[in-house]
Amino acid sequence: MRSKIYIENMGCFRRSLDADRYARYFTANGFTLAGAPAQADYILFVTCAFMKRREDYVLQRIEELRRHKGKLIIGGCMKAINEVRLAQNFQGPSFAASDQGYLDTLFPDFKIKFKDTPDANFLFKYNIFQLIKHYLSTIRLDLSYLKSLKYAAMRLDRKYYYVRICWGCPGPFCTYCSIWRAVGKLRSKPHALCMEEFRKGLAKGYRHFVVSADNVGAYGLDTGSTFPSMLAGFIEVPGKYEIEIEELHP
Fold this sequence. Notes:
The protein contains ten helices and eight strands. The chain has helices spanning 13-28, 52-65, 78-81, 83-89, 102-106, 128-137, 143-155, 179-183, 191-203, 227-235, and strands at 4-9, 32-33, 42-47, 71-76, 160-167, 187-188, 208-213, 242-245. It is an alpha/beta fold and 250 residues long.
């Protein structure tokens, strides 16, 4: 019988793209996706930790997931942002968002390696009940929070086609931010590959594109290119479409 893996993401949209790539990595190597943790041989929990209440939720959820028979693996941002606190509560395998190739060391017999699994163009399908529980655990009664909920709900619609153009952040790193610890140094995707993904989305009939990264505006600083040149390449492609830009920092 084929092994089953349950994947759960509580992080941002970039980590959701990671989760979708993890899913395709495992299915390409013969696994099936479980619909619930109780059904799984392995459980991969993609975490968020950019504020303390997210860390609190991670640890609470780890305790819940450990009750199942499946082997628990922790991914996402928690390990890099607060490794000490994670280690105090969980001693199993874990990896940061910048070290996704770690999965190959856990599954050395896989024929398809993680680096050979194409990047995701869609958000991973959320467990809607777990998503509601997560948001209830972090609820704030203010307008910005309600707007973020509306924005998140819109993004769950699979009509949005994502093109992730880079990972990580350029140094020197911001002193007030912890996310760079998890996402690592800037790594820009080749311009030609970004254009290939964009054209492929158009050919499949998608018209709502999201240009995404941990730090979109930093694209190309490590390769001698720039984000404006990348955007110019997109809009030169003929067709009727919309492009939204996420995480455009100064």
